[in-house]
Design a protein that fits this description.
By secondary structure, this protein is α+β, with helices and mostly antiparallel strands. The protein folds into 2 domains: 138 residues, Helix Hairpins; 192 residues, Distorted Sandwich (Glucose Permease (Domain IIA)), CATH 2.70.70. It contains 5 helices and 15 strands.
Length: 434
């Protein structure tokens, strides 16, 4: 009995010890798992932060690059203005030199003439000059000479005064030009300093991005996929519209043919007008009505004069086509349109009269609007709010939606704008009046 109790106690102790050891092991494992999860969560958060930082840095770099380009344009314009002012200054200096030389000559001649008159022509001598004439006719000639000489003196005095006035005007004009030049030189110095600051900031951002190359590449790949998806969607919608227009054209043509045949059989004159029958300009292209063709031609004729697709201040931070980044050799961009950065709250607007054909949503681009202008199409993407719907007729500069501001990127507000003709993507910049 005692032995059995001893065995039971030993077994209980062993089980208790085993259980305690097992419990501690579980706790240790749980702790390890918790620490691992926390580490994973921290790593994920750091990765997300790094991703956002890399992409934000790239956007900042693109904006800086655009600003640097603008600063260089300003400096080039100021240099041209300074060159023109230098030319004006040289001309005015030349004119002043000529005027001073001519004025000195006139003053010398006039002074010499006055000195001669003073020494030879007192009132008594003048009378003697007239009365000593050999004939009455000679007396008249001498009187006329004296009058003409007196008139010449007055005219010369007036000319000298006028030339002095002209000289003073030119000197004032020169002073004004030099003042303008100094002001422009100051502006150029200011613009050059700002350019230097932007270039220094650009170098810092480039250095930072080079450290985040892999993360940035991954994020850019995701963006490329979103852009490709947007293009596929646009192509699908364009193809769908082309099919519908072609079908409508086929039905209209068939109806016109049947009507003409019926009129011929009945002996009536053909009365149906084919003005609304759709016709495509290219094989498989969008079949247009007469009105749409006129709209298309009008759109084409306004190349270079179309307004910007947004209101207010803007800066183009992304250009059309495949390009290697100016500062980051490993970054290549292939854009189907342009990216226009503006201020929060800005609205997108139609660049020409047209008809809204589609309003749709795509990841990375928020809401998009397609407007048809005959066989030309304009696409406005990254809208947070849309003011129009499919089927609406819009006019030039009409607001169509509010551009999205990204709260995670300090309310960065960018409109993605595309221009297509049929299924061909065009560079929008030459079409816009910037």
């Amino acid at each position: 009995m005692i032995r059995r109790l001893l065995i039971i106690c030993l077994m209980s102790l062993f089980v208790g010890t085993s259980f305690a050891q097992s419990s501690r092991k579980v706790k240790d494992l749980q702790k390890q798992r918790k620490e691992a999860l926390q580490s994973i969560a921290k790593t994920d958060q750091e990765l997300k932060t790094t991703k956002k930082s890399a992409l934000r840095s790239l956007h900042q770099l693109n904006k800086l690059t655009a600003e640097i380009t603008k600063h260089k344009e300003v400096i080039a314009a100021l240099n041209a203005e300074i060159s023109e002012i230098n030319s004006q200054e040289r001309k005015i200096n030349g004119t002043i030199a000529d005027l001073e030389k001519e004025l000195d000559t006139k003053k010398t001649a006039y002074a010499k003439a006055m000195k001669g008159i003073a020494s030879r022509h007192s009132g008594y001598e003048t009378l003697m000059f007239v009365f000593s004439s050999n004939s009455l006719n000679q007396s008249y000639r001498r009187i006329r000479y004296l009058r003409e000489y007196s008139a010449w003196r007055k005219k010369e005095a007036i000319k000298i005064a006028e030339q002095q006035d002209e000289l003073e005007k030119k000197k004032k004009e020169l002073a004004k030009v030099r003042s303008e030049k100094n002001e422009i030189l100051g502006k150029r110095t200011d613009a050059t300093n700002k350019l230097k600051q932007k270039e220094d900031s650009q170098k810092e951002v480039v250095a930072d991005l080079k450290k985040k190359e892999k993360v940035l590449q991954k994020e850019l790949n995701a963006q490329r996929k979103q852009a490709a998806a947007l293009n596929r969607r646009i192509e699908q919608l364009i193809a769908e519209e082309a099919r519908k227009a072609a079908e409508e054209a086929r039905r209209a043509s068939e109806a016109a043919r049947k009507a003409a045949s019926a009129d011929k059989q009945s002996g009536k004159k053909a009365s149906r007008s084919d003005g609304e029958i759709r016709r495509a300009q290219t094989q498989g292209g969008y079949a247009m009505t007469k009105d749409e063709l006129e709209l298309s031609n009008s759109f084409s004729q306004n190349k270079g004069r179309l307004p910007m697709p947004l209101s207010g201040k803007y800066m183009i931070v992304g250009h059309f086509g495949q390009q290697q980044h100016q500062e980051l050799k490993y970054v290549q961009v292939n854009s189907s349109g342009i990216d226009i950065q503006t201020t929060p709250g800005t609205t997108a607007r139609s660049v020409f009269n047209g008809v809204v054909t589609r309003v749709f949503v795509m990841p990375g681009y928020n809401s998009s609007v397609i407007i048809r202008h005959g066989n030309y199409l304009t696409i406005y993407s990254n809208l947070s709010e849309v003011f129009v719907k499919a089927g609406d007729k819009v006019t030039t500069r009409q607001s169509i939606g509010r551009i999205y501001s990204d709260p995670e990127e300090n309310n960065r507000t960018v409109l993605h704008f595309q221009l297509w003709k049929e299924t061909t993507k065009l560079n929008p910049e030459p079409w816009l009046n910037k």
